[in-house]
């Protein structure tokens, strides 16, 4: 009789340093837009969402083929709420993240920081010059009484974004987002109607965050085919393999990884504040491991006076 096998450890494990690719040795694509577009043509890829330069470099080092910014994650990192970031702050952030990695970066550009199509076009034009390979425009209005922009206005906003991208060389992939399931209007038929119209207006990829079931996801994928569809995964309700079977082309995680990072931080800090103990610090990633992950890009003259544990 074979010896009983030990129960698997349910705790997640950290990637070994060997899995973190040397950042300075990654190949630079000749054209990130072409690379990004090709990813949407077949198969399924995961596009995780960093919130700053450090998280972007670590994710690229893990081998992800593309990244996307997260409006929420970035906002929290500068002490603001989601949708509380200004256009200028967002543009600086996009430029910094895009310049920090050698993979395509898609911008969570929220509603384009404008209501009228002309304003969306102007702002998308500015975003197109930051080095990003793609961006998304959503149709949430911020008005609780009418949380989605009117249908015709929403379509006009996508069309304006398309025209602005084309006017700036056409080297940015446009994602049209419909937010009904986010803002309390979970109408699948209306969501599909909007996404189909956004595709006709020039969106390259379509996205409806927070679809509630795999059946709803499948319905959107089928209705939009052959256009690629992005699915948001913010919890453990599915797997990459299951979404691949449905024909999903792209997965993002929104602010999910940022929330994962903030959770242990707040638990450890609360423990210190309320109990005067430091057990949470022992669960942190070892200093040499996280510091070493950035070593390839380090300035050899930087930090010579530090003690190495700052």
Descriptive account of the structure:
- With 310 residues, the chain is α/β, with parallel strands linked by helices.
- It has 2 domains: 227 residues, Phosphoenolpyruvate-binding domains (TIM Barrel, Alpha-Beta Barrel), CATH 3.20.20; 35 residues, no CATH class.
- Helix 5 runs parallel beside helix 6 and helix 7 packs parallel to helix 8.
- It is built from 11 helices and 8 strands.
- Helix 9 links the parallel strand 7 and strand 8.
- It is 40% helix and 9% strand.
- The N terminus is likely disordered.
How do the strands and helices of this protein lay out in sequence?
Blueprint: H1 32-39, E1 45-46, H2 53-61, E2 67-68, H3 71-77, H4 87-100, E3 105-108, H5 117-127, E4 134-138, H6 151-167, E5 173-177, H7 188-200, E6 205-207, H8 214-224, E7 229-232, H9 240-246, E8 250-252, H10 256-275, H11 287-293
Parallel strand pairs: 1-8, 2-3, 3-4, 4-5, 5-6, 6-7, 7-8
Give short descriptive properties of this protein.
eight-stranded parallel sheet, alpha/beta
Question: In this structure, how is the largest beta sheet organized?
Answer: 8 strands, parallel
**Distance between the terminal alpha carbons, to the nearest Å?**
54 Å
H/E order of the elements?
HEHEHHEHEHEHEHEHEHH
Spans of at least 5 consecutive residues whose pLDDT stays below 50 are 1-12, 21-30
Please name the fourth-level CATH homologous superfamily of the largest domain. Phosphoenolpyruvate-binding domains
Q: What structural class do the secondary elements suggest?
A: alpha/beta
Helix content: 40-55%
Counted up, domains total 2
Beta-strand content bin: 5-15%
Measured on Cα atoms, how large is the radius of gyration?
A: 21 Å
Which CATH class of the largest domain? Alpha Beta
């Amino acid at each position: 009789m074979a010896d009983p096998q030990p129960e698997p450890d349910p705790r997640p494990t950290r990637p070994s340093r060997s899995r973190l690719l040397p950042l300075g040795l990654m190949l630079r694509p000749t054209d990130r837009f072409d690379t990004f577009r090709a990813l949407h043509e077949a198969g399924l890829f995961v596009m995780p969402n960093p919130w700053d330069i450090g998280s972007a470099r670590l994710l690229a080092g893990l081998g992800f083929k593309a990244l996307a910014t997260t409006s929420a994650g970035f906002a929290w990192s500068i002490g603001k709420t989601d949708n509380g970031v200004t256009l200028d702050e967002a543009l600086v952030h996009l430029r910094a993240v895009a310049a920090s990695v050698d993979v395509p970066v898609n911008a969570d550009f929220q509603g384009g920081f404008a209501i009228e199509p002309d304003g969306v076009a102007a702002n998308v034009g500015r975003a197109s010059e930051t080095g990003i390979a793609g961006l998304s425009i959503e149709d949430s209005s911020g008005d609780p009484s009418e949380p989605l922009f009117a249908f015709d206005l929403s379509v006009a906003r996508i069309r304006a974004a398309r025209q602005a991208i084309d006017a700036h060389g056409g080297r940015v992939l446009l994602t049209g987002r419909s937010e009904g399931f986010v803002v309390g209007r979970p109408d699948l038929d209306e969501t599909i109607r909007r996404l189909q119209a956004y595709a006709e207006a020039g969106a390259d990829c379509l996205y409806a965050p927070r679809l509630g079931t795999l059946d709803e996801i499948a319905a959107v994928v089928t209705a939009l085919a052959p256009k690629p569809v992005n699915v948001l995964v913010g919890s453990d309700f599915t797997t990459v393999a299951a979404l691949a079977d449905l024909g999903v082309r792209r997965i993002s995680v929104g602010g999910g990884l940022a929330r994962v990072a903030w959770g242990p931080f707040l638990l450890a800090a609360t423990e210190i504040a309320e109990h005067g103990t430091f057990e949470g610090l022992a669960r942190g990633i070892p200093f040499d491991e996280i510091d070493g992950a950035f070593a390839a890009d380090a300035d050899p003259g930087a930090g010579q006076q530090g003690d190495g544990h700052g």
